[in-house]
Design a protein that fits this description.
By secondary structure, the chain is mainly alpha-helical. It has helices at residues 3-26, 29-56. Helix content is 91%, strand content 0%.
Length: 57
């Protein structure tokens, strides 16, 4: 997996977790949902890169 893309996926996941936790802490459901969405986007990006790595070998 490309180091840059892997880092971007991890950053999205981390940012999403922080946003979700902050939303939960203040009772903001919208922020919490956006955090979950960012995590999902990071997960999807990571899965895509792993799939590309599998087919390279």
């Amino acid at each position: 997996m490309s180091g840059e893309k892997k880092t971007k996926a991890k950053a999205e996941q981390a940012k999403g977790k922080v946003k979700e936790a902050a939303g939960r802490a203040v009772g903001n459901e919208s922020m919490e949902a956006k955090g979950r969405a960012e995590q999902a986007k990071g997960d999807a990006r990571q899965a895509k890169e792993k799939t590309k790595d599998v087919f390279k070998h």
